[in-house]
């Protein structure tokens, strides 16, 4: 029996929404779904965020400054089936929590490495917490908007995405800050398959 | 005697040391250029521009005590631990009329689409050469520049 990855499908959807402009043009591609103008307004434009090189957590001191600003990292936290599913049923639910981290640089000396978007000015770029809260909201709106995540072209499909708690911003060494937002994703599993 | 002549004299001394084989490690400046912002899966847009420092400066291992989730290049001695080795490079003769290396040349361009690496080539490095980044630059002395370099994350080596 082939094993289906529990993580790869949902992670690819997160990458599509945060980085690849899913929903921005109204078309979803091969399966022919289209997005409403409301979804298009919420979708995040391509080149707003970039995935951190090497897919490492953003607090790693080995990360180059050039690769840090507006880089995001997907950190899977935990999983839970809440213990109440019938294992002979065909479908089951799994709830995963995932943290989306976004790296932000601050300090004028690092201006060369800043990746500004949405008309950010240098004054805004010196306020990492304000910037972090703003990018947290931007990602939250896109990632929890049903139209953008709900298509069942991934397995397991995401049937519910909600933010859990608040967006927090912490500063670390070297003029760097990390904006962190936790999401709770409810996935629909086909229990005739093996997930691993 | 002007500073230029002091530097030229120092450079001749350093060339003499390199000429008799006292500087076995070759130091190369490698400038990468990217067509889009540096990110996962993004490769440089072409082969990097390389400049070999001449004469080869002294290179000395300082420490191997830093670690990173990235891991550095896989030196033969790390035994499965990801350590970032630190080396001292120098003295390098500052720029003078007819030779030397300017600070700007050593630092190269570093921004979202440019990345400078220092390549050390010699027996101490796996595969013959490994990439480093400058973590400290000392230009307070008139006839020498000293660099502290640390192994670069392996995933970003071009």
Radius of gyration of chain A: 18 Å
Summed over residues and divided by their number, the pLDDT of chain B gives a mean of 86
List the total number of helices of chain A: 5
What is the chains' assembly state? heterodimer
Helix count of chain B equals 2
Specify the biggest β-sheet of chain A. Answer: 5 strands, mixed
Please sum up the structure shown:
Chain A has helices at residues 8-18, 37-42, 122-125, 128-143, 146-149; strands at residues 3-4, 50-51, 71-80, 91-105, 157-172, 176-190, 194-195. By secondary structure, chain A is an alpha/beta fold. The model of chain A has no long low-confidence stretch (mean pLDDT 88).
Structural overview:
The complex is a heterodimer of chains A (196) and B (158). Chain A is of the alpha/beta class. Chain A is built from five helices and seven strands, in the order E-H-H-E-E-E-H-H-H-E-E-E. In chain A, the strands form two sheets. Chain A has a five-stranded mixed sheet with strand order 2-3-4-6-5. A two-stranded parallel ribbon of chain A has the order 1-7. The longest helix of chain A is centred in the last third of the chain and has 16 residues. Chain A is globular, with a radius of gyration of 18 Å. By secondary structure, chain B is mainly beta. Chain B is built from two helices and seven strands, in the order αββββαβββ. The chains are: A alpha/beta (196), B mainly beta (158).
Features:
heterodimer, A: 196 residues, alpha/beta, 5-stranded mixed β-sheet, 7 strands, 21% helix, globular, B: 158 residues
Furnish the topology, listing elements before pairings.
The complex is a heterodimer of chains A (196) and B (158).
Chain A: E1 3-4, H1 8-18, H2 37-42, E2 50-51, E3 71-80, E4 91-105, H3 122-125, H4 128-143, H5 146-149, E5 157-172, E6 176-190, E7 194-195
Parallel strand pairs in A: 1-7, 2-3
Antiparallel strand pairs in A: 3-4, 4-6, 5-6
Chain B: H1 3-19, E1 26-33, E2 49-52, E3 59-67, E4 83-92, H2 103-107, E5 114-121, E6 129-141, E7 144-151
Antiparallel strand pairs in B: 1-2, 1-5, 3-4, 4-7, 5-6, 6-7
